[in-house]
Structure formats: C-alpha cells, structure tokens
Write a structure and sequence with these properties.
CATH topology of the largest domain in chain A: Dihydrodipicolinate Reductase, domain 2
Number of domains of chain A: 2
Oligomer: homotetramer
Shape of chain A: globular
Number of helices of chain A: 11
Helix content of chain A: 25-40%
Strand content of chain A: 15-25%
Distance between the termini of chain A: 27 Å
Largest interface: A-B, 46 and 46 residues
Chain lengths: 347, 347, 347, 347
C-alpha cells in the first residue's frame, strides 16, 4: 500500500517537533512537507538534531504556502500554527482538497460569538465552523472519520473532558460544582524566546496563571455542556510546573444523590473499556505524568470523598502527546481508515 | 543581653536542617543541643556541609535524651520528630521547664478522638492537648506568647488556613464549597531512603497523593471551623511536584451572596495589613513559589470568577519555611518577647 | 519466524526497566521471564505502570533461579545484576545453554588480577573470562556474533572508548595524556533507597565522585590499551548532575606531531561512517545529551585546540541506552543474526 | 556611621538581581540607584517580587546615566553590564569620582591586544587598563583596597584560578598540562529571551560549549601566568548543566617531580588557611555545588592520582556569588575598609 503523503504546517515548535517525531516513524505516512517560516531551507535534523538518522529527517523546511504544500501531493496536513493564522491556512488547504487536522483553537468552538469572547477577535472563517469536528477520537470517532477538517483539542481540555464526559452524560455528578486544577509542563507554553519561559524562571518555580478565564475554558465548557445536555460553567485553574511535558488534572465535583464508586467505575468502563489509549487506573489510583509522557495515553484514577460528597477525578497525559500531537494522529488514523494505534506505539 | 539557650530535637531531617540554618544565625539564640539518633557524634557541618563556617556549626549531634538536653541549660526546644515520638519528648522537656515548639502533628488537634481517627492510634499525651496552642502567629499571637507548648502547624495547613481564615470569619465564602489543591516540593516528604523519593522517581513526575483524606485535613478543618463558627469539611488534594521546596495552594470556594472583590480585599487587608510575613499580592496576582523559598513569607493572591460565582485564592510559601521551620521560630520569637522578625531576615 | 525466547534477570532496576521497555517491543523477541527478588509475583506493568498496555507487560516477575529460567525455554538471558551475583547466574545459565548478555562488570576484564584490584574481591568465575567477549558492537561484531557470553560495557567506558579507539589505533593522540571528564544522569547510580540519591540531594547539585580510581577505569584502560598496542593509564573523573539519564564525556589528549582536523575526521569516519548508532556530529559540534536519551545513539563531536596542541573529544549517550540496555540488545541482535537495528528504533 | 551610598548599573539581569539581594541587606550600604534601560520606572520589588518587603526594595529603576547616578551622591557603583558598554560607563563614573567595581570583562585583561583577540574589538578604554585591579580578594587585597576601578573576575576564572594559583606559585604542578572542565548552571548565560536558554531546551540536557577558546580563557591564563612566572596556556571546556546556579570545576595537571599530598595541602593551607570565603574540604573531598549556592564561598577538594602522576583539583562556587555578585562586594568591602564578611553572611 502506498503511504499517505502528509504535511506539517508550523513544524518548528514543540508540537511540531512531536508531530515530526511521530510522523517520520508512522508506517503509513510519507512526510512530504514541513513548514517553518523561521527555519525554511534547513534540514529537519539540523533544527532537531535528535531526529538525525530517521528516514525522512533530511527533508528541508519550507515556508508555509498552501499552493506549495498542495504541489507536494499531500493528502493531509497537520496545522500547528497560532490561532488566526491556522484558519487561513486551513481554508486554503481545504480548497485544495487536503484533509486538515488543525491543532490550533480556530475550529474548536461551534459558536463564533464564543470565539470572539475568548480570543478577542472575530472568527476568521466562520463558515467552516459547521464543517469542523472537535477531534476527541474516543468521543466521536465516526464524525472524525468522515471529516475534512478536524479541530484537534487542546491539552487542558483533553485532560478535563475525557474523565468527566461519561459521568456528566450519566448524570453522576452535579455540573454546577466542577472545579478543575491542572498542572502543566513548560513545553505547553511554546518554543519562543520569552523571559518567563527561561530555565532560570521556570526551574524551582510553581505558579498558577490565566485565572479566572483561560481561553481553553470555552472548548471545555462547550463539550461538557454537550454531554450534560445543559449549559456548564466550571472553574479551571492551570498551573505551570517545572517538567518538560506532562499534564495532570485534578477535577472535583459533587456526586449526584446516591452515586457511589460502583456507578463511577461502571460509567468510565462503559465509555473507555475498549479505548486503546485510555488507561483506567481505578479507584484510589493517582496517575503520574511520568507514565504517560511521549505516549498517546491518558491515565485516569479517582477517589470518592464521602466526608464532602465529592468525587476527585485525576488524569495524566502528555500535553504534547494525547494533549496535542499524538491525539491529532489518532484522528488522522480514523480519517484514513488505519489501525487506531498506527504510528502510536510507545514505550 | 544573654542569648537564649536553645535545642533542636530531631535535627537531621530537612526541617531540622532548616532550623539549624536559621537558628545558627539567629541573633538572640545560642544553639546548645542538636539531636539525631543517626548522626550522634558528628559535627553539624559534617552532616550539613553547607553550614560549615557558621559559628556554632562545630557543635556535635547528640542522641535525643530529655535529661541531657535539659542539662545543657536550654530554655527552649524545637521538636522536628515523627508524631508519637514528639509527644513523649515534649512531655519530658516540659517537665524540665523548657518551652517546647513542636513541629510534629502531636499537639495540633484539640480533640484526641480526631487524632485517633486521622493518625490511627490513641493520642500519646492527651492531657497536654488543652495546654498546647496551635501556632499560627498571625492568628493567635497572644496565646502563643504565653504558651509553654506550641503546636506549630503543618505546611499544607498554613498555606490553606491563612488565606481562608479572614474570609470565613467575615462570612464572605460558603464553607461547604471549599476545595483546596496544593502542589508541594519533594522536601516535604522527608529525608529518608525511600525509592519513591529518589531523584529518578520524582524528576519529570507530577502526581496527586493522599486522597481523599490526608492527615493534615484534621487540623485544617479544625482551624477553619473555629473561624467559621461551624463545622467545616473541605476537599483537599495534595500533589507532589519536582521542586526542592515550596508549596502553592489554589483554593476555590463559592462567594457569599453579594460579595465582590472589595470585600475580599478589605477582609484580607484587615487581617494581614500589618503582618510582616504575609504579602498580599492583590487581586489577579498568582504567587510564585520561587519568590518565597527560604523565607518566612506567605504570598497571597486571588481572583474572582463571576461566571461561576467562585473565589480563587492562591498562596505560596516554603514548606520548610513558613510551612515548618521559620514559622516555628516566629512563635519562638513571640514566646521570648523578641522582635517578630528576629532571625527571620531573608533575601 | 519464531521469536527468540528471552529472559531478563534483575529486571526491577533502571537498566532492567530499560531492557523491559525495549524487549517488550522488540519484533523478534518473546519475553518469557523477568526476575526480581523483590518484585516476584507482581506484574511487570504493576511495578512499571508506564508499560501498561504493552503486549507482554502482564508477565509476572519471578525470583531469580537459573533452572526456572531455563524451564521457560529461553534461548538468551540479559543479566542486570550486581557484580559477583552476575557471575554465578551467568555460569548457571551457560551450563543450561543459554546465550548470556551480562551487563555487570563481571566479565569485562581479561585479567582476574585487575578485577581483584578494582572490585576488591577474587574473580568469581575466572574460567569464563577467556570465553567472554567485551561487547562493543562497533569494535568486535564478529566475536560478539559467535559469543555465548557477552560482557556488555559500562556506561562511562562506552562514552570514552568509542571516540578514542580509532584515534589511538591510528596513533593520532598521545595515550599518556588522556583526561576524561564525564557527567552522568542520576539513573546511573541505580534504583535503591539511598539518601544520597534522593531528589532533594541530587536536584540543584553538581559534584564529582569516585576519584581518582573509579572501577570503570579498569575496563576503559584495558580496551584503550588493546587499541594503542601499549599500556594506557588515563585520568577519569565522573560527575553526578541532575538529569534523569544521559552521559556526556569530554576527553582531552595531546595530538600527535603533525596531526590536524583532517586526520581526526578521517579516522573517525573510517571507523564509524557505516555504524548505524554512531552519529559523527563533526568538528566544532558539542553533542547534547537530550538528543540521545532513550536511543542507542552515541553522538560524537570534537574540536582542536591549536593553542595547546590538544584534541577535545566530546560524546553524548544515554547511560541506560547505548551505555547499558540498548547496547546489550545490539549485541543480542548480532548473536542471533538479526538486523543491527532490530528493536532499536527510536524517536 | 553613615552608610555608603551605592549604585548598581545594569541591575535587571541575574547578576544584578544577586547584587540587589545582597546590597539591600548590606549593613553598611545605602542603595541609591539601580539602573535598567528596560525596567526604568518600575520598583525593584515589582521586577523581582522575591525582594518585596526588604527595606529599599521600593526604589525605582532608572535609565543608566552617569550624571544621574552621580547626582544621587553615590560613592560607589557596581557595573553588571555587557562588555564594551561597561567601559564607557566606568569611564564616566570614574570621572565623577565614584569607585567602580566592574563585573564585565572590560578591565580584566592587562594587554589590550589580548582583549582584541578574545573579544573581537579594540579595547574601548585602554588608558584605564593600567589603573584597574583584577579583583580576586584572596590574591591581591591591598591593591583592591587602594583601587578606584576593580575588574571583578568572571565565574569560570574564579573557580579555576583560586585552586591553581598557590600550586603554580609553589611550582607543584606543571603549567603545560592543565586541563579544566567546568559545569555551570544556566543563570550564567544571562537573563535574555534566547530559545537556547528556555526551560525545555536546558532541562534534561547536558552539553559542552564554547570550545576550544572561550573568552574567559584570556583572563584565566593571564592570572595563571602571573603566578607561574611564565606564559601558561590551558585547555578549558565549559559545560551547561540544568541547575539554577552553581559551578563546579575539575582541573587536572601533572604533579611536579616528587610532589605529594602533603605539599599540595600545605600550599593551599598557606594560601587560604585564613581566607574567610575559601573552604578547603581536603584531600579526597568532592565539593558539591549545593553547599555553596547563594554564598560567597568557594569550596576546594583534591585527589592525587598516583597511576598517572596527576593532581585532580575540584572546586565549587556559585556563579552568581563568588563567581560574580558577592565577590564584587568582597572587593567593595576592601575598598571601603569594612569587615571582609560585611553583608556576606550566609546560610
């Protein structure tokens, strides 16, 4: 079988690097283009010396240009671009009949007004919002499989939505009581020369940020509301902690009347018992980010707090993996009818 | 003026090391004894080479023995011992008329039944519970000043109680809705040869632990209840993150009807405007642990989340400092009528 | 083709974990036994939760017993055991006709007197020394391919020997002037409950250790002498630095009369131009450990210092990879006639 | 006694921050000016929130201007500026009769030709070179005491020169055989928005850099030559390792004929037995950077390697402390006739 010609647009950031790492080894993929305004003309392995020796790592970065990307014969493109910029590129590539898996926030929201509220600008391509599918492969695999445009979720949303979704759908927790605290590795903040991201600023440092209204809240609440069948507003506090990658999220919510550990377990198992990338660690388990880094896994544990009537939901994922690059590949696999785990082996 | 002869009992752990660091430089203190079963006979500076060159660092560790400690002429003793063991030593030293500042959990709870519930054993010296004062210097300075036995609070409790206390007292938040998420540096887990605390296990690792009923919950809820004037049960989730020391805590609670940013600020300023070790960073500020490590400060910031009606309270302290050693010295200063900041200078 | 039944003896340390990680995914291997005195009876994935989901991770650790290992039908065994213990197990497994790849120091030295000098005890199985092959696959692939017992090199030796070997063989540097400084990640010190290896002792800490006569000197000098055709004594200073894994080594030596950059490059390229796991980064390049972690690569760069007439050789490898586990698998591939890179893909 | 009015020029980098930390607490200093082009108009504690609460931390940064600095009545100025810029400011401040302690490289070299060779530009103020004193307080205290312009040494030079100097002076090692390998924390690279200094680039990374001719070589060799009484050329390899601050240096050199441990110890003790900031840890000791961070100490250990006839010299210091800020204050104390340890207490 011929391999699927694929492009990565915006490949010189940390998410781009993760996509390169995975797609250069994906057995069904032929990487035909990697773009970077900054690195155009340099070999992939020159920019990311770790990748030296991988077949395909000699490919040279090109400047981002839809026509040039299409000219490579690419059937699909991953976009790891800033929001706003992504929409424009997506439009141009869809016009050229590529499947687009967009890792930016541009197509995650169904309502352009919410986009405007959270991103402070009018939506750059509102017509595409209806077409785009929010790309949680565990949640809507069929829609993703049929999509031309997948809006691959953010790292925080994935870590919050996946554990909560079945419980809201099954009405096991009170949606008005949800509080999510996430701790993220520094790679989530991007690869840019910002003083606040220097080693000496992040090392031996712990801090919350982005309160009370982080942009990702918009997509989190949209997806939770769909599951709950009602509007949901949650409190979400992200924290920056000194690890390379990895996110853990601790979410608390009041249990619905009469709900105990059996119902929680049953709901999660019904949702994810067969999901190859969700590891239910069980009641009492506290997932550790070090067990999921560089994988597409999300690990989920939970505890019931009978003293307060609350559920404590804990998840761990790699912000660059299940929270970005590898999850996007999971959608890609669905679109092209590949095995769900193709190119996502780990260890 | 003669300096106060002082002993540290259990001085070879991380809290002991912090007490040594501070007391060897405290202008009103003469360290006359430092005990360690393990290190008895070795010089302080041999065990902690960093301290070499400090006057007094040539003192040799002795085995823990109340009579021998009293024989040094010590007027005061800091206990950095495991719970259970601390009570026994405290009793023996109080009998010998030393002032005791106990950093263990043994005298923090007023009710021996709660001790039994959370620590899994009968209280070893229930008669002393009435006498002991829970040592939050910002909360009950006069009682501490008169106390013979101070139960110096744990690191998590300090970070949770101080920001919440005035707000509960002033009825600005609903006590039934409190959720506290803490992230702690690894030194909080102690200096012991435990695989789980190895560099290679903690580095690049994020995880919750101790859910749903960490032992410190007992003292947290006791103090919050005193402030609220009613029983309080909260959800508390501690997390282990790869920094040396430092704790940040993010606490959420539903605002009482009609309460806004002005009331929150006013309440915190009334409580801590004059407190030398509480830095109110203001609304919108997210305290960073790197600004408080090796100090006795607790930094407090907050944000209001009008979408959910919740308050987000954020604090940062050093788990070995304001969360242990330096806070104990703050109580010591009160007991001996010293300047509040004596020996607690920083930078 | 049937997969090769393979055992790991001593699989619960960091090297064991790396072997598990790689062998569970090796396409030609069926892991039939993993031993650990401590973890016997527990599933691999229970001890190493990261591996959960890998086929074979449900296998249970057994106690180390040669007969029991042989009874699994294993054709080969990797030994990740302390020296002394390894020799005994190797003897028993060789008797049972398994191929043995020993990652301990027991069979690395040709001369039992040197073993005694550096390891402080008589060699436990001197008869096997002649049979054992020092397992640097780039250096003696044919001997390894024919060996029943491979003594897989230590992490420091690999990082020092590989860059130096061709230069000594080609008489480009003066063997009497070699000084090697290595910096190693903490995993090299093993997975044991030792205070000195705690996060809080290693984090924010840099220190030399093991001077002037680290045990690995013995094998380093043995191999260098073989290349130089004369006895070689070098100065070697290892340092412990706070990374998980990875070693960089900077070796200096005086250039032989008239030798310049061209000769150095030619010598290294002749030796390693075709070697799949040696990446010659070139003159002026300073290899970074982050580009080799979790791979079997050794990256090599160099610089000439005309002011002093010295060569500066720099190498980077993963102490658990090319310095231990994956290098052992490289030998295994040779023994069983597999592709050199089988099971050693990376990214 | 009136306190000495003092300015810090270039106070918003990591060295500036360390100077602020120390000078704001120095009992004989009144900080009257802190400059930063970037931060002009902001309070010190706003830029460095850690310092909030220190008397004087409310001072506002001003733009660097010699006239304005002089107008504050300052008697002394510390310059933490890039080379080139520093010379210009030094000239202007000396003209205005301030004592200048320059932490840049501008006045460290006696020979402007060497400056040109290593810094790639003509010396900006060659007339001042004769006047400037290379500020190693342990080496030339009287000259520093009389100086108007002190060229405070770099971090690498301090760590290399101090241990070697007495040995060269006493002819105990062969100057032609010196090889120095240093490992430095990331703060040494400065506080600037450079991708290579991001947390995600430095964390879990080890690498050499600046080979074979780091700029600091020039001052190192100048000072070693003065001690040896002959020209000295050494090999120096700096490495970047993931700690906040701290440098360790391992220097090897061939022992002179007949020299043993006694001579080495005697030489070091004669040189530093009374030096308050040099801690001779003794033969066999491997200094650990974590014991010197945030202090003005340099710790020195050594080992003899009889197999090769080499000495292994090991030192540890804080690159921002003894390697920059606190060492500059040590010179300041000499200039103003203060106690050597004034403002340099530690713990």
């Amino acid at each position: 079988m011929e391999r699927i010609k694929t492009a990565i647009v915006g490949a010189s950031g940390y998410t781009g690097q993760e996509l390169l790492r995975l797609l250069l080894r994906h057995p069904e993929v032929e990487l035909v283009a990697a773009t970077s305004r900054q690195e155009a003309g340099r070999r992939i392995a020159e920019v990311f010396p770790r990748l030296e020796g991988l077949p395909g790592a000699g490919l040279k970065f090109i400047a981002p240009d839809a026509a040039e990307i299409a000219a490579t014969g690419a059937s699909a493109a991953f976009l790891a671009l800033p929001h706003g910029v992504a929409a424009e590129m997506a439009t141009a590539l869809l016009d050229r009949h590529l499947k687009v898996i967009d890792l930016s926030a541009d197509f995650r929201l169904r309502d352009p007004a919410v986009y405007r509220e959270f991103y402070g600008q009018p939506h750059p391509a509102p017509a595409l919002l209806e077409e785009a599918v929010y790309g949680l492969p565990e949640v809507r695999p069929e829609e993703i499989a049929r999509a031309a445009l997948v809006a691959s979720p953010g790292c925080y949303p994935t870590s919050i939505i996946l554990p909560l979704l079945p419980l809201l759908r099954d009405r096991l927790v009170d949606p008005a009581t949800i509080v999510a605290n996430s701790m993220s590795g520094v790679s989530g903040a991007g690869r840019k020369g910002d003083i606040a991201l220097l080693f000496c600023e992040c090392n031996e440092s712990l801090r919350a940020y982005g309160v009370p209204k982080h942009r990702h809240l918009s997509e989190i609440e949209q997806e939770l509301a769909l599951a709950a069948g009602e509007a949901v507003a949650i409190t979400f506090v992200p924290h920056l902690v000194p690890v390379q990658s990895g996110i853990i999220t601790t979410t608390t919510a009041t249990l619905a009347e009469g709900v105990g550990g059996d119902e929680i377990r049953a709901s999660l198992e019904a949702a994810y018992g067969e999901a190859p990338f969700v590891r239910l660690r069980g009641e009492g388990a506290c997932p550790d980010s070090k067990h999921v880094t560089r994988t597409n896994f999300i690990d989920i544990g939970w505890a019931l707090d009978p003293r307060t009537g609350r559920l404590i939901l804990m998840s761990a994922e790699d912000n660059l993996g299940k929270g970005a690059g590898s999850q996007a590949i999971q959608s890609f696999n669905l679109i092209f009818g590949l095995a769900p785990t193709a190119g996502l082996h780990f260890a």
